[in-house]
């Protein structure tokens, strides 16, 4: 009888520990992201392509762009976001000569101007954005927005393949966009409502469910169970 009671207690503790670990560590986002891509297979990791009619995009440059809603910038605002750039770039490639992801500050929501914030192309300037190394993974980017203090801007995300060649790659994913100022949130968007209210999405830009993968629930459960087991072994033995 005592052994049975002890086993039930152990199982109860394991269930509680696992539930607490999952609630603390389970990812709270990553179902949707902003993407520049087409011909995706639903429900997968980033896939698809961006085989566009490049001449048509050059004739209408706004097709390269996705504009955020208007954001009021404070005296010391900072932008953070996550981005995956799955493009033609390789280990021996020159990033200035290949597909280019960039982010600009737009004052009118229709054009770029000359205020670049970040880019995968060093020649464009701004904070450098790393490109795909073969394994999907987000890069976390931080941009100082103090140059736009007390102004209103729109973020203009751009992806330019530069030509019609070698565009069979999974494209761009942007997520977890946050603008803060002195600890106060000025703008936040993680696209988890599956909508892009207030955004102007052109060309291939759209919301996609094929995002960079997050830790799975099973892997989290396994980690919790292992941690629980280790903590059990560290407890001193007691005798009745």
Which short descriptors sum up this protein?
disordered N terminus, 13 strands, 2 domains, Jelly Rolls, 6-stranded antiparallel β-sheet, 240 residues, 3 helices, 7-stranded mixed β-sheet
Record the SSE blueprint.
Blueprint: H1 2-25, E1 33-36, H2 54-59, E2 65-67, E3 71-72, E4 77-86, E5 100-106, E6 116-119, E7 127-128, E8 139-144, E9 152-160, E10 171-181, E11 184-189, E12 200-201, E13 205-208, H3 217-234
Helix pairs in contact: 1-3
Written description of the protein model:
With 240 residues, this protein is of the alpha+beta class. It has 2 domains: 1-27 and 215-240, no CATH class; 31-211, Jelly Rolls, CATH 2.60.120. The protein contains 3 helices and 13 strands; from the N terminus they run H-E-H-E-E-E-E-E-E-E-E-E-E-E-E-H. Strands 2, 3, 5, 6, 7, 9 and 12 form a 7-stranded mixed β-sheet that branches. Strands 1, 4, 8, 10, 11 and 13 form a 6-stranded antiparallel β-sheet that branches. Helix 1 crosses helix 3. The protein starts with a helix and ends in a 6-residue tail after the last helix. 30% of the residues are buried. Residues 1-29 and 215-240 have low confidence and may be disordered.
């Amino acid at each position: 009888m005592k052994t049975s009671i002890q086993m039930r207690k152990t199982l109860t503790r394991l269930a509680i520990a696992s539930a607490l670990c999952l609630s603390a560590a389970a990812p709270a986002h990553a179902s949707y992201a902003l993407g520049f891509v087409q011909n995706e297979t639903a429900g997968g990791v980033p896939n698809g392509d961006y085989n566009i009619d490049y001449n048509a995009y050059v004739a209408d440059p706004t097709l390269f762009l996705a504009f955020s809603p208007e954001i009021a910038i404070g005296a010391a605002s900072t932008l953070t976001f996550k981005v995956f750039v799955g493009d033609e770039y390789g280990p021996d490639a020159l990033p200035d000569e290949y597909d280019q992801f960039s982010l600009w500050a737009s004052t009118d929501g229709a054009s770029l101007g000359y205020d670049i914030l970040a880019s995968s192309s060093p020649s464009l300037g701004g904070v450098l954005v790393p490109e795909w190394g073969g394994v999907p993974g987000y890069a976390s980017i931080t941009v100082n927005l103090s140059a736009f203090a007390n102004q209103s801007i729109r973020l203009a995300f751009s992806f330019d393949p530069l030509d019609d060649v070698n565009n069979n790659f999974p494209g761009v994913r942007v997520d977890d966009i946050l603008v803060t100022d002195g600890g106060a949130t000025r703008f936040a968007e993680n696209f988890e409502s599956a909508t892009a209210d207030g955004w102007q999405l052109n060309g291939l830009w759209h919301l996609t469910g094929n995002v960079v993968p997050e830790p799975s629930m099973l892997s989290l459960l396994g980690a919790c169970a292992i941690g629980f087991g280790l903590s059990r072994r560290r407890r001193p033995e007691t005798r009745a």
